[in-house]
Design a protein that fits this description.
The complex is a heterodimer of chains A (376) and B (522).
Chain A (H helix, E strand, L loop, with lengths): L3 H27 L1 H8 L5 H24 L2 H26 L7 H18 L4 H30 L3 H19 L14 E4 L17 H18 L1 H11 L1 H6 L4 H28 L1 E3 L6 H11 L4 H25 L4 H15 L1 H8 L17
Antiparallel strand pairs in A: 1-2
Helix pairs in contact in A: 1-3, 1-14, 1-15, 2-3, 3-4, 3-13, 4-8, 4-11, 4-12, 4-13, 5-6, 5-7, 5-11, 5-12, 6-7, 6-11, 8-9, 8-11, 9-11, 12-13, 13-14
Chain B lengths: L2 E10 L2 E11 L4 E5 L6 H8 L7 E6 L2 E3 L4 H6 L2 E4 L11 H6 L13 H15 L14 H14 L4 E5 L7 H16 L3 E6 L2 H7 L2 E6 L2 E6 L5 H9 L18 E11 L5 E11 L3 E5 L6 H8 L7 E6 L2 E2 L5 H6 L2 E4 L3 H5 L6 H4 L11 E2 L2 E2 L1 H14 L16 H12 L6 E5 L7 H16 L3 E5 L3 H7 L2 E6 L2 E6 L5 H8 L4 H10 L3 H9 L1
Parallel strand pairs in B: 3-8, 3-9, 6-7, 7-8, 13-20, 13-21, 16-19, 19-20
Antiparallel strand pairs in B: 1-2, 1-4, 4-5, 9-10, 11-12, 11-14, 14-15, 17-18, 21-22
Helix pairs in contact in B: 17-18
The chains are: A mainly alpha (376), B alpha/beta (522).
């Protein structure tokens, strides 16, 4: 029974539960009314317990209903999950090749920029325009990611530093272009681009914001699964990620593997950027990426760097995002709580020993090693 | 001091590493602990040294119960340990290293270097351990570094000294000196526990031999027990100690020709210095030498893993200098790296995946960039069967296998295609006797098929057993290439850099204990 993936699933699930417990404490502490009842806990305990229970259950109920309580909330969860899945796949793929890709944010911006520009600059027939814009997004992300792989392969520069720095470059490049004729909408003074042509937009499911990009994301999952599990390239990526010396000794090119991994990771993040601009936002702004690029690192960690795991983790985070908005509207619990929940989940994932200790799960093997230290 | 272990048991989960071990080491006795890798010798000594806590049983020192919860407590009780990998600070002098951890100071916290030097001189005189207290550890040979380790233990007034595989890094002559030191310790009443898996040494050194197998004491015997009896006790079945090897009959022309090869290591030193040799088809050339004399760099250069600074490497007339590892593999070189977990396999990959690590892009394992799981599994099933790899299934991660089985996976992969040249570096390091026998036989079989074979080993015994010719390396150069009948002592002298003729003469004049045993054997 205790196969490794079962244990990892149990640990991931336990981490979510623990995070919800921590979140409950925060809800109680942050609500002034509830906190007040704890002031006289020793003279009349039921008040405090009652108030706390109500606050926590109301918040979590609206979180749950906002994420999964009907078709509309579910579609919103899928919308939120779409870019997280794609960018998360990119981070996962890089992990498997032994690279810590912190640059999904920058790659996503580069992808959105290219896709958006193609989307509003040309007038093309229906299917062609969307495909071309999508390809531009993949290309932009691939360049931004591939650059990192190439630099690492050629000069040995550390990918963490490269990707962090390129995140800034991408963001400020976008901000600057939004003030020039290249991207800025004519007649506007604020940094916003024209709206993407109808022909380049992802078709929506009637009555919701859910768009075809979600299916594209699922196709990407299948493609990444095939790449990793069934292709010779994926075999090389995994070998290099697990033991670069043995891979080199077996005649593989470590530099080539790094470059391919980062090209593909960038393209996937670029796809997420294209989905944002062609599927939900339509004009480009400097907030186009939100925090998707950074959240996708978390998604990849929670998904244990596997394609299927990334889908599940992307859906969980999508649900937390969608539900969090409803929770804020209905119970005045701040949206930031969901951010804290997400962060706490990852903290527990990153410290599996802690989760095992809390739930007394037997430790066997070392689990997935997601990234190595600076010198590795 | 008399040391007794009574019913000592140590478990790791369901594994019983030490199962009710009873052992008595008399005062002034050299007691050998003989067992294969993984038999539980190191666990036992770590318990004794306070690094691990026993689950059952007790340790008695001169009849007094002793509980060590840390190495510090063990040292205070008079137990010293010399680890296989030395714990010395290379840039410190001998005296500073001996003083380390028990520094004596004069006023204002100034280190009392003079006291440390005096102590080193005193101890080295008393035990016949010739060491210069002012030499820097990084400048002295490995054998002398080992003496510093022993001095450190003696400075802590050790009455029981544990030596963990102390001969692994020594030449036969250095081993002789170590034997002398151990006898001096014995005369001074120190008890010595000597851990090893080498049969010859124990017979030369020990007063009594305790054999451990799978965590249990199998027998305690006298040193006049024969080697084959000891091997049988150690392994649990009769073992063929001599490799069944007739001289190569299938001798072809020179396949590998190395000419004036220089390799510069990352620190900028000339690690391989003008090395030239030839290996013919159907011949095994053994490269002997103490660890760290350029063998690693030589092999990496021959595989294209390290760039050669100058010189030429030709395989079947084709120049290979400048080509990468992939071209070397494709030229028909099979490679068994010296550190298999580092270079030989991917631990988190399955047995099946590791068996195609350098073949994955060829048919039938993949077509048009797509892997063929069925072909990969079929290949794995066949190799596992042929090489007797003990694994639960071909999907098991290689890191879960024993060292011997991991090596069989590497061997099975490298021998699964037609080879021109087989390079095997330390092919049996860390393996049990049974696996060694298997690996040696496969290597000889590969030779008999007409493949040129190059073996690099720091175990002289292995070199002598397998080689048709022996090249000895010292400081990056080849001291000489000699025949397989060369005496141990001559090889030992050559390993210290002495040219063949002079070495032969010196060996004749100063025969060593081990050499005498070995040559008598043949």
């Amino acid at each position: 029974m205790s196969r490794p993936w079962v244990r990892e699933l149990v640990v991931s699930f336990a981490a979510v539960i623990l995070a919800l417990v921590v979140g409950a404490v925060l809800i109680i502490v942050s609500d002034a009314d509830v906190a007040a009842t704890w002031g006289y806990f020793f003279s009349y305990p039921p008040d405090a317990l009652q108030a706390s229970w109500t606050a926590v259950s109301d918040a979590y109920t609206s979180l749950f209903l906002g994420a999964l309580g009907g078709w509309k909330p579910i579609s919103e969860t899928l919308v939120q999950a779409t870019p997280l899945i794609c960018a998360g796949l990119g981070v996962s793929l890089a992990f498997r090749a032994g690279l810590f890709n912190i640059g999904a944010q920058g790659q996503l911006i580069a992808g959105a920029l290219c896709a958006g520009w193609v989307g509003f600059s040309f007038e093309l027939p229906v299917v062609v325009h969307l495909l071309l814009a999508l390809a531009a997004g993949l290309f932009g992300g691939a360049v931004w990611g591939g650059l990192v792989g190439l630099l690492k392969a050629r000069t040995g520069a550390h990918e963490v530093i490269l990707t962090i720095m390129l995140n800034y470059v991408a963001l400020y490049l976008l901000q600057w272009l939004l003030t020039t004729d290249v991207l800025q909408r004519p007649g506007r003074n604020d940094p916003i681009s024209p709206v993407v042509e109808q022909t380049a937009q992802f078709p929506n499911w009637p009555g919701t914001r859910l768009h075809l990009g979600f299916l594209v994301a699922l196709l990407a999952v299948a493609a990444v699964w095939w790449l990793l599990a069934r292709s010779t390239t994926g075999f090389q990526l995994r070998a290099v990620g697990a033991n670069p010396e043995a891979a080199r000794t077996a005649g593989m090119s470590v530099g080539r593997a790094y470059t391919i991994a980062m090209l593909a990771a960038g393209a996937l993040a670029g796809l997420a950027g294209a989905q944002q601009v062609l599927g939900t936002d339509y004009p480009l702004t400097d907030g186009i990426a939100g925090s998707v690029g950074f959240d996708s690192i978390t998604v990849a960690l929670l998904g244990r760097a596997s394609p299927i795991g990334t889908v599940v983790a992307g859906l969980v985070f999508g649900a937390l995002n969608a539900g969090g908005l409803q929770m804020q509207l209905q119970t005045q619990t701040p949206l930031t709580l969901t951010t804290v929940l997400q962060a706490t989940i990852v903290l527990f994932i990153a410290a599996p020993a802690l989760v095992r200790a809390v739930f007394r799960i037997r430790a066997e093997g070392t689990g997935t090693v997601l990234a190595k230290g600076w010198n590795a | 001091m008399k040391l007794e272990l009574r019913g000592l048991t140590k478990r790791f989960g369901s594994l019983v590493a030490n199962d009710h071990i009873d052992l008595t080491v008399e005062s002034g006795e050299i007691h050998c602990l003989l067992g294969e890798n993984g038999a539980g010798k190191s666990t036992l000594m770590n318990v004794l040294y306070g690094l691990l806590q026993p689950d059952e049983g007790s340790v008695l020192l001169d009849g007094e119960p002793l509980t060590c919860t840390s190495p510090g407590a063990a040292i205070a009780a008079g137990i010293g340990m010399v680890h296989q990998h030395f714990m010395l600070v290379p840039v410190f002098t001998v005296a500073e290293n001996v003083m380390l951890g028990r520094e004596r100071t004069r006023g204002l916290g100034v280190l009392d270097q003079r006291a440390a030097r005096t102590l080193v001189r005193e101890l080295s005189e008393r035990y016949g351990l010739a060491v210069d207290p002012d030499a820097r550890v990084e400048d002295i040979p490995v054998g002398v570094q080992q003496r510093v380790e022993i001095l450190k233990a003696l400075a802590n007034e050790a009455k029981v000294l544990i030596l963990d595989e102390p001969t692994a890094v020594l030449t036969p002559q250095e081993i002789d000196e170590l034997i002398e030191v151990m006898r001096a310790l014995k005369r001074n009443g120190t008890s010595v526990i000597f851990i090893t898996h080498k049969l010859k040494e124990v017979r030369a050194i020990a007063d009594r031999i305790t054999v451990i197998r799978r965590g249990k004491v199998v027998a305690t015997v006298a040193p006049d027990t024969s080697e084959s009896e000891l091997a049988e006790l150690m392994v649990g079945r009769p073992v063929q100690l001599q490799v069944d090897k007739r001289a190569g009959t299938n001798l072809g022309g020179a396949k590998l020709a190395v000419e004036g090869l220089d390799v510069v290591d990352p620190q900028g030193f000339l690690a391989v210095d003008g090395v030239s040799f030839e290996v013919r088809g159907g011949e095994i050339l053994g490269i002997a030498g103490v660890q760290g004399n350029g063998q690693t760099e030589l092999v990496e250069a021959l595989m294209g893993l390290t760039a050669a600074a100058s010189g030429s490497v030709k395989l079947g007339g084709r120049e290979l200098v400048g080509a990468g590892p992939r071209e070397h593999l494709e030229a028909g070189i099979g490679y068994i790296p010296e550190d298999r977990s580092h270079d030989g396999y991917v631990g988190t990959f399955s047995v099946a995946e590791n068996l195609i690590l350098d073949l994955h892009s060829r048919a039938p394992f993949s077509r048009n960039g797509t892997l063929s799981p069925a072909a990969i599994r079929a290949n794995a099933a066949q190799r596992v069967e042929e090489f007797d790899v003990r694994t639960q299934s071909v999907e098991t991660e290689v890191s879960a296998l024993s060292g011997g089985n991991q090596q069989k996976v590497v061997l099975a992969r490298e021998l699964s295609r037609p080879l021109e040249l087989l390079i095997a570096a330390q092919p049996t390091r860390g393996l049990d006797v049974g696996s060694i026998e298997f690996v040696h036989n496969r290597i000889v079989r590969e030779r008999d098929q007409g493949t040129a074979v190059l073996i690099v080993s720091t175990e002289l015994e292995e070199i002598v057993a397998l080689s048709d010719r022996i090249a000895v390396m010292y400081r990056g150069r080849i001291v000489g290439i000699v025949g397989p009948d060369t005496s141990w002592d001559q090889l030992g002298c050559m390993m210290a850099g002495i040219p063949p003729e002079e070495a032969a003469q010196q060996a004749e004049e100063n025969p060593t204990v081990l050499g005498a045993l070995e040559d008598a054997h043949e």
